[in-house]
Each structure stands twice: as C-alpha cells, then as structure tokens.
Specification:
14% strand, 11 strands
C-alpha cells in the first residue's frame, strides 16, 4: 500500500508539474535569460524581437555626451524608421511636472498642502466622498481614496476628451478607502490638481509649467497637446491585435526622450528648484515615473549608483498580455549593460 501511495503521489506531482508548465510566461523567461548583449543598441534591437514596433532610448551618463538609441518603426505603415528625436506621448510621466508645479505654488504660498478638496472645490462636497478630509497632499500622493476615472468600464475603448466628462466618471462613487489610510493610484487626483492650478494662477496649468519648468530648462520639445505639434513628428502608437495608428488620439503631454531626460536630471539634482522648494517636493512625491496609455509606454528613471538617467519609449501596448513586463525587462537589461560598462 505504501509503495502504491508513493507511486500515485509521484504521478500526481508529475501531472501537476507538466500542467503548470503551460502557465509559465515563457516569453518573459526567455527575455530575461538571454545572454546580455555588449551594447545598449544591441539590446534595443533585441526588443523588436519581443514584439515591439518601435523603441527609443536616451541615456545621460554623467561626464559623457547624451547617447541616443532607436530601433523598429516610427511609422509602421509608411515604413519610416524609429527616430530618437521623435515626439512621444509621455502619459503619467507628466505627473512629475504637475507635482513640481504644486511644489512651487506651495512655496509661494498660493497653495496649501493641508487644505482640503472641499476648501478648493466646495461644489464637489457630496459628489466626492470625504471631500472635507481629503487634503491636497493626499491627492498628490494618491492617498485620497478618490476612484480612478480610467477604471471605468471600457474607458480606453472610447476615452473622454474633456476634463468635465472624465471627472463625471469618478463622481458619486464610494471612496476606495478612507483618506490617508492607504495608497491607490488615481488619475482623478491629478485631473483635479491640474484644475486647481488653473484656478489659482488664473490661466492654464500648461502655461504655468511652461513658464516655471520648460523655459528655464530650455525644453523646446515638450508640448501640452497634439494641437501644438506637427503630427508627422509624433511616433505612431499601436495596440496588439489592432491595425490602427493611435497617435491622433488626444492624450496629454508629448516630449522627446531627450527633453524628458533633461527634466529628470534637473529634478534629481535639484537644479530645477529654487532654494527651499526641493524639501517640499521630497515630502510629497517621487523622483521617477512610468507612463502607459494605448499605444505608448514609457519609463523615466535616474540611477544614482551610476549617476545616469535612462529614458525608454516603446510604441506598442497590450493591457491584457505581458507587454509591459517585457518593457521592464528590456529596461532593466539596458541598465545592467550600463553598470557593466561603468565597472570596466
């Protein structure tokens, strides 16, 4: 009986092991275990083999001129190669710029991190739960509990173009959690913060960001919307399984990888701030970010150990698959290559 029981257990374990093999994301395993290339350009080229249409990478290593890398297509239909100077929809990376704007307005005394949503938008009391307890600081840090409007059913099938329409998707819903009690990423927070900046400065938050960030840093290739740019300069965006080019969808800020890199360097080394401002920023937000919307995904980080900024843009997305995970693997391998080169 004991021998028979052991035999049955072995068979069950073998069947379980074989079955589990079908659920292993082999595409990720393969991307991870491949031998590390010698150069960043080789790794960027390899990314195309993982199903990305186009890739742009910008590297700013301290003491060296910036380096630009690209592979794949800028425009798949017209067979235009990827251009490292192309404009790209940076999605949620734009939250870094908004957080800097909040910092400067707080330092100037025009905003208070402790004032509540009810103080700034009394009309939202009763429409957003806990409006009287949600502070500006909580909103910046995604600790407000306000529902995320992009979580609305099928939001990305037909995205709303106006802030009013977007906000409506988050009104009259129960809070995700009590203010300050948890963390929950919500684009609604930053929609309201952008509206607040408009209200406080008396003009568009885009213009405020331009005056306080873009002009001082000479970021001439960062724009608030598609209406400001030549559409041919915008990298095409693709969603797996769809043939349409998504670059004409109106989805926030655009910039070149270089402009994002210059901004990120200034953010991290403090040169973006006037005296006293950086302490405020450090108390409310992070120094790196990622971005993801249909057709566009991006990673912007500063690596202190090698004093290097690495920006990565990829113009292919798939919210249901492993597409994002693959982009993170590619990014991590690029950083490994840079670390290895630094140690030589």
């Amino acid at each position: 009986m004991k021998k028979q029981t052991k035999r049955i257990l072995r068979i069950v374990l073998l069947i379980g092991t074989i079955t589990s093999m079908f659920f292993v994301p082999w595409i990720l395993v393969w991307a991870w275990i491949l031998p590390l290339p010698d150069t960043v350009q080789e790794q960027v080229n390899d990314a195309i083999d993982h199903g990305f249409d186009g890739v742009i990478v910008y590297v700013d290593e301290s003491g060296k001129p910036p380096a630009f890398y690209a592979a794949g297509w800028h425009d798949r239909k017209n067979k235009i190669p990827a251009d490292p100077q192309a404009l790209f929809k940076i999605a949620s990376i734009s939250k870094l710029y908004v957080a800097v704007a909040v910092t400067k307005l707080v330092y100037d005394g025009r905003l208070s991190l402790d004032k509540t949503l009810a103080d700034y938008f009394p009309e939202l009391v009763g429409r957003i739960e806990n409006a009287e307890e949600i502070t500006l600081k909580m909103m910046v840090q995604h600790r407000s509990g306000i529902p995320n409007y992009t979580d609305a059913h099928n939001y990305w099938v037909s995205p709303r173009e106006s802030n009013k329409e977007r906000l409506e998707l988050a009104l009259d819903l129960p809070a995700n959690f009590e203010p300050g009690e948890d963390y929950g990423y919500s684009n609604t927070n930053y929609l309201l913060i952008r509206e607040l900046i408009d209200k406080v400065v008396g003009y568009s938050y885009h213009q405020y960001i331009k005056e306080e960030i873009l002009i001082p840093l000479e970021l001439n290739n960062t724009f608030s919307s598609l209406s400001e740019v030549n559409i041919d300069n915008v990298m095409s965006g693709y969603y797996v399984g769809y043939d349409s080019d998504l670059k004409t969808d109106k989805q926030g800020m655009l910039a070149t990888a270089e402009d994002v890199g210059i901004f990120l360097r200034a953010l991290n080394d403090g040169s973006l701030f006037d005296e006293g401002e950086q302490a405020i920023y450090s108390s409310i937000y992070v120094y790196e970010h990622t971005g993801l919307i249909p057709g566009y995904q991006s990673i912007a980080k500063y690596h202190k150990d090698i004093d290097t900024v690495v920006i990565q843009f990829m113009n292919t997305t798939d919210f249901e698959g492993y597409n994002w995970n693959l982009s993170e693997i590619v990014y991590s391998r690029i950083v490994k290559i840079l670390r290895r080169q630094k140690s030589l």
